[in-house]
């Protein structure tokens, strides 16, 4: 099973809007996928570091949630490096909803990560 953390701009779960800004998303939607890549369960977590954080705090937080994959519309290079060090797979790319991002990942259409071109901090 995989546990996927998806950046979200709200607390609406799979129907919620995917966040384009990893470090400033208000929520993470955690989705556990079964061996057939079907969503088995979801949970919504407030991002305690959305307003202010130190480098590495959010990747450590995501790891503490038990995620082994993180999906985000965009993410800086340093965050990608932190996730690599933690053994967490990262995939970036914009999707209209959290559920659409998970579906794209499960179908192999959302993979790989490239850092944002500019720093948003």
TrEMBL record:
Keywords: Nitrogen fixation. It comes from the Bacteria. Coiled coil: none annotated. Gene3D superfamilies: Dinitrogenase iron-molybdenum cofactor biosynthesis domain. The keyword Protein biosynthesis does not apply. Residues 17-106 form the Dinitrogenase iron-molybdenum cofactor biosynthesis domain. InterPro entries: Di-Nase_FeMo-co_biosynth, DiNase_FeMo-co_biosyn_sf. The keyword 4Fe-4S does not apply. PANTHER family: DINITROGENASE IRON-MOLYBDENUM COFACTOR PROTEIN-RELATED, IRON-MOLYBDENUM PROTEIN. This is Dinitrogenase iron-molybdenum cofactor biosynthesis domain-containing protein. It comes from Thiorhodovibrio frisius. The lineage of its organism: Bacteria, Pseudomonadati, Pseudomonadota, Gammaproteobacteria, Chromatiales.
